[in-house]
Amino acid sequence: MSTIPELYNEKCHCAGCSQNDLGYSFVARRTAQRHNKRARLNAIRCERDMSTQRNMMEVDDEPILTHQPGALEESYTQTNSPVWEGASMSDTEDVSVTNDAISNGDNDDSGSNSNEISEDESEDNVIELDDNELNSEDPFATPDMPQNPVHRFIATFVVMFASRYVVDKGAVVLIEFINKLLTIYEQDFQLPLSLPGLQRMTGFSAMTKGIKKFVVCQDCHKVYEESASVPSHCDFVKLGARSSCNCQLTKTSASGALVAKRSYLYQSVLHRLGYLDLVRGTIIDPMHNLFLGTPKRLMDRWIKDKDIQDDDFAAMQKTAETMIVPGGYTSLNSKIGKQFSYMKADEWKSWVLVYSPVLLKDVLAKDRFENWINFVDACRLLIKPTITFDEVNTAHQFLQTFCTRCDELYNAEILTCNMHLHLHLRDTIRDFGPVYGYWLFGFERFNGLLKNLKTNRKIGFEETFMKKFIEDVHKDDLVNSFLQSTRQTSAFPLLTKLTSSFTPATIPSIRQRTFRIQSFVEASEDPNVLVKGNEPLPPSAFPLSLKSATTMSDIHYVHLLQYYKVAYNNEQLVHFQQALESPYFVDNTITLLKYINILGQVYKGKGESGSRGSLVQAKFIGSTGEHIIAYTGQIQYIFTHSFTPPPTSSSLTPLLRTHRRPTQLLHNSQHTFAFIKWYTPENDKSREYKHVETCFPTFSPDDFQCVLPVHRIMLEVATAEHTTRRKVKKMLVIPLPKKQYI
């Protein structure tokens, strides 16, 4: 007798599955539920059809039942249910099954009828059910959930609020407070007194019930389920071995008890699929592969070969202390002078992308530095949140050249398995997308938080993190379930604050002005594109972090007035002090912003965060009109300004020209600008090298170009002070990869 797979352990007695000697078949649990649900729906449709025909007979006084053509005749002519076969019309009048009974699955009569469908009926002859009928069951439905929509909202809100903001002990106090309010307002409902009880009542605990604990042998990787008896040593016998693995699975705690080495995994049926390629399905973590392997190995080699000596580390540290690094990158305050001891992935990332192109230029030999830049070029492309297939191929070529040159410049010992995996990152990104979706920086930061709190011994990191992750993923589903069951749209804004990102399935989104990502990106890359500052901003910018309204300084206001004259090609615009003389004046009232989020990149004024996040680049057309030049500047402040031009103003100017034909749209009066002071560019570009530009550390005179629409900000930069041999002070500019979360 063949063994039934563990997955198919549910008996199904439907008409299709009962055509054998046993009278049933083993199927998956969900398949059995689907078959029974289909049978109940079929029985209801038969009842309704025969009831309709009975009414027709009473009206027409016809003694013979006649079938109408259609899907019902095709599906039910062979039914052998005792309700329909051999029963008079009066016998069937007492048979009724409601839709509520079907959805709840608690009607015994419908359950018995589901097993009485004709044996000759096959899967192909059954009416196709709508997906909504089969998937309408609420995954969070529990018998203890209150029917009152207000009570359901209270329970849902408390369980989600406790999950996001409150620890277990605080949740108990919150529950007691809510119960006290319910008592005061004479409500016949109380929340469970414990957080686990509340999670069970709302179905919230069902999210993580699939997590199981296992013990894994670190040698042969045999898995033991912790619920069973776990041996102290692994008993797996390897192929061709004469004895068992005998790897220690448990260790002795301070109290003398045996403690298992746990691993928290999902028990997945995917591993049983023959077509699943586990090798290709294994993701290479870019954090470890790019930043925790190769940079450290090469640094150790440079120190060993005396390419970098103690004096060099001291000089590099002195230069590094003058560098201004944008937000999102870690400043290396003293790690460089200490020869990169105890560096973390975030710090190695900053070293590779920001510091190394500047600090290694005058330290390493030319051939070794140029080869290192190949690795930097690859990292600059691969870490982008949005990446094209051409950029993936280009990064692969950089890594291939880097590994080949390493073999030539050093020796075979420098090449490791980790460096070999550099060449498989292209396949990983092609299969799974940009690295931000799966690299382990988030785990490293969370683990660092646990170490700072010194709670590693008190909680299981893996289990806690996995439960938290799964709960956050399914919070949106819980909110949608509540909205669909109660239609309480007034609770929507409050519940969405408890989710990280929510896309409602039942609530229509607010209609906004059309935002086109391609046009927005093009505006920052091509200065020929006409941008006035009132074009739609990306959704990431909202809600705007507005401060109080204020008046613009008189010095800066004249540049804003000139900007509008040029942008709208209207010299009739006048100073606000001349408002009585002409209706076409520019107001001097502005609203400052704390910051603005442009596709995931946060820009700030220098007063908000020192200089971090305020150093940017934007492209302008050169004075000859032929070349496009990237200028470096510092944001002084970000602001919004309302302005409506006269109806006769033209939309094209010689300075802000575009080859596109303007589209007449409803004018948006709100403009969003950044007031930027631009550094004085250096005309001699011969001494610049890859990834590092130079300019003077002084600002150019202000003009209307200092008023820049935020749409035209290209990217963030890092800077460093530099003094030449002739004692000329200059500023080194390191353009950083542009972040675009689309």
Automatic annotation (TrEMBL):
<protein>
    <recommendedName>
        <fullName>Transposase domain-containing protein</fullName>
    </recommendedName>
</protein>
<feature type="compositionally biased region" description="Low complexity">
    <location>
        <begin position="99"/>
        <end position="116"/>
    </location>
</feature>
<feature type="region of interest" description="Disordered">
    <location>
        <begin position="73"/>
        <end position="125"/>
    </location>
</feature>
